[in-house]
Amino acid sequence: MPWRPEEAQRYVSPDFIHVPFSIHHGIEGESVLLFVESRFPLDDVEIQGTWSHTGPSGIRTTLVTFNKKTTIPDMTYRDRLLFREPNVSLEIHELHQADEGDYHLQLNIAFHNKTGLVIKEERTVHVTVDVPVSTPVVEKSPSYAVVEDKANVTWTCSAERGTRVVFQWLRDNVPLHHRDRYRFSRDNSTLLITPVRKEDKGSYRCVAGNAVSRGRASEPVELNVYYGPYNLEVNSGQGLRTGEVFTINPGELVFFECQADSNPPNSYVWISKSRNATVITEGPRLEVRSYKLAQAEEYLCRAFNNVTQKQNEAQFTLVVASLGTGKEKHSQDGSHLSPVAAITVSSLFVIGCMLLFFLRRTCHPKRVLMSIYNRPLSEQKRPHRSGHEDATEDFGIYEFVSIPGKMESAQASCRSLARLEPLQDMHTTIYDVIGHVPETPSQSLQN
Q1: Nearest residue to 251 (alpha-carbon basis) of 292, 286, 299
Q2: Cβ neighbours of residue 140 under 8 Å, at least 6 residues apart?
Q3: Would you give the DSSP letter of residue 276?
Q4: What's the pLDDT at 219?
Q5: How far apart, in whole angstroms, are the C-alpha atoms of residue 234 and residue 255?
Q6: Among 54, 90, 153, 372, whose CB has the most other CB atoms within 10 angstroms?
């Protein structure tokens, strides 16, 4: 059957062969398989092809020539090459560094039922050959502790074995990246910190790896940085503090603590500014007896780092004054009387005043007497029955009120009481006495 170009177009397809991986990472001394998947029926075709290698130098070498029946390897590689039929895959044993490079497959396919039709397929696979990485080791220079802002530190990471090693630096298990004071070498094996600061202290590690081995971490190395003092503060758990002023009760014994962030720890001195800058004591704690003080005195705590040669100071004023019960807690907590409580107290006060005014208007003694004097004469003369026999039940305090302009009536009442018969029962109550008021009180009151 004659060959026609339109049929060739139908058979020229990259699907006749398939290479799953275009890059293989090989390990030195081990094998690598360049797998090829054929997608045509071998019984219906004739094949012919070659595998060749192009190394880093650029020289191309034919490794094997093959067809459907015969395989001819290069003599220098025949002990290390295995050509796998029928899928034209190639396996390389005992990899060397020289085996790294590009491997080319050229394949011609001729179909039995298509006279004159030859399909050409080409694929390229890149192979790297590496040595696994050993556990890295970190070195620090200088090896001793350093002073912040005055020293630089150089870190070096190295691995005894491994090719194309990639390095990563970590501080306290957090990856480090390039910034103003951090400088890395091209392969990241060296880290320079210039200058060293307080925040650089911590545990440093190096992680090393390559294409054929996972990252392996070094043992941690500590960086000790001398710094400070920073954030100096004076505190006390007693008295009332307002800003930098402490108020304490007379006779109270008070302790003050002076603290600062520093490495190594600071030395502290306490100074009385009110006594011509006299040094009172040394150490982080100050004891003050208020009865030995004047009304107010000024103090100063000074912290000094003997290594960094830096110092810091904090001043405060101590006032001796009486603090009301609960005042300290109220002031320190910053609590205030809530609006609801204020409204409640005000309302209760107003209600109390209204009740007092009402009682005074309804129960005033003057009004009681006036109501008695103004009763009709017949009612005044009516005998009064107390409703009980024992006047001791009437025991209490009675108030006699003088009514201006009514003196005549009052005198008449007193005379009437004097004319009472001596034999009258002594248990007669005050209500009975009022019943004997002379007949003319109303007239007297009207005058």
Answers
A1: 292
A2: 153, 154, 155, 156, 204, 221, 223
A3: T
A4: 96
A5: 10
A6: 90
Per-residue DSSP letter, 391: G
Reported as type and span, the H/E element at residue 129 is: strand 118-130
Q: Kindly report, residue by residue over 364-373, the tens digit of the pLDDT.
A: 555 554 555 5
Give the predicted TM-score (pTM) of the model: 0.61
Alpha carbon distances (Å) from 441 to 33, 315, 417: 141, 86, 13
Integer angstrom CA distances of residue 6 from 73, 107, 114, 117, 307: 36, 21, 12, 11, 89
And the tokens for 73?
């390897």
Q: Is the peptide bond before 20 cis (omega within 30 degrees of 0)?
A: no
**Is 264 in contact with 307 (CB distance < 8 Å)?**
yes
Q: Look up tokens 């007669």; give the residue.
A: 428
> Cα dist. 406→189, 241, 344, 447 in Å?
120, 68, 47, 8
Residue type, 136: P
Alpha helices in 232-338 (DSSP H): 327-333
Per-residue DSSP letter, 274 = G
What pLDDT is attached to residue 115?
Answer: 72
Q: Which residues pair with 371 in a beta bridge?
A: none
The Cα 52–Cα 338 span in angstroms is 91
Residues listed for the chain = 447
- Please list, residue by residue across 150-170, b when 16 or more beta carbons sit within 10 angstroms of its beta carbon and e when fewer do: ebebebbbbbeebbebebbbb
Give the model confidence (pLDDT) of 218-270 as tens digits: 999 999 999 999 999 999 988 888 888 998 888 888 899 999 999 999 999 99
* CA angle, residues 359, 362, 367, in degrees to nearest 5: 130
Walk across the sheet containing 296-305 and list its strands. Answer: 240-242, 245-248, 310-320, 296-305, 267-272, 278-282
